[in-house]
Amino acid sequence: MRDELSQDIFGTFIPEPSHEDPVRRAQIQMKRPLPKRFYEAVGVEARDDGYSITLDGKPVKTPAKNLLTLPTREAAELVVAEWAGQGEFIDPATMPITKLANTAIDAVANSLDEVFDEIVRFAGTDLLCYRADGPRELIDRQSARWDAVLTWAATAHGARFILVEGVMHQEQPKEAVAAYAAALQRYRDPFQISCLNVVTTLTGSAVLALAFAEGAFDLDEVWSLAHLDEDWTIEHWGSDAEAEARREARYGEFASAASLFSALQSAD
C-alpha cells in the first residue's frame, strides 16, 4: 500500500488530472475521499543523487514509481514539511511542492526540451510586450513599471524585445528570443525548469520568470507586475469573491514554485 500511496493521492501529472483552474481543481479534490494518514515520522535520506523523502523510514515514491528525491536538502525539507503537516487525512491540495516535485521527476525529466521550448515560446508573446492603446492612465502605468523589466532583459542578456500596441500578434526579433533562450539555459534541469514553467504560466511572462530566477525582481514585485492590468480593472470596476479566490489560489501555486526554486539554489 505504501508504495502505491503517491499514485493514489496525486494521480497522473500529464495531463492535469482534474482542472486547469486551481479553485475548481481544489473543489474537485475536496469531493474525493481522502486517505487517512498512516505514518508517524517524516524524514530525509541522503543519497548519491540527492535527498529522498521517507515515511517511518520507508521511501516515498512518485506516481510513476520513482523515488521522491530532491536535489538539495533545503528543497527536500519543504516536501517534508508538507507531509509532516498533514492531519488525520492526507490532502494533496495542501501539498503543492510535493506535486511539483513529482511532476519534475515523472514528467519534465522525460520532456525537458519540450518544456524548455514552451517557456521560450512564451517569450515570443510576452505579456510585458503587449501594451494597451488606452486609456492614457493605463498606458502610462504599463510604461512606468514594465519598461524597467524589458530594459533589464536587454541590458543583462541582450534580449531586446519590441512593444506591440493592442492584442494583435507580432513576431518578436529572432535575436531577442535566441538571447532569452541562451539566458534560460542556466536553469535547464527538470526541477528548476518545472518551477520557472509554473511562474511563466501563472504570470504570462517568460521575461518575469527569468527576472525572478536571477533576483532582479522579488516574488511579490513579479506578481504585482504580472497583474498590473487586472489591478487597474479592479480599481475602476471592482472585483468579486470568486475572482479573488481564484487569484489567491493561483498566488499559492506561484509562491510554492518560487519557494522550491529558491530552495534548489541552496548549497549543501
TrEMBL record:
Top-rank taxon: Bacteria
| Coiled coil is among the record's keywords | no
Q: Which keywords has UniProt assigned to this entry?
A: Chaperone, Transit peptide
Biological processes, Gene Ontology terms: proton-transporting ATP synthase complex assembly
Keyword Transit peptide among record annotations: yes
The Swiss-Prot or TrEMBL record describes its family as follows: Belongs to the ATP12 family.
The name on file for this protein is Chaperone required for assembly of F1-ATPase
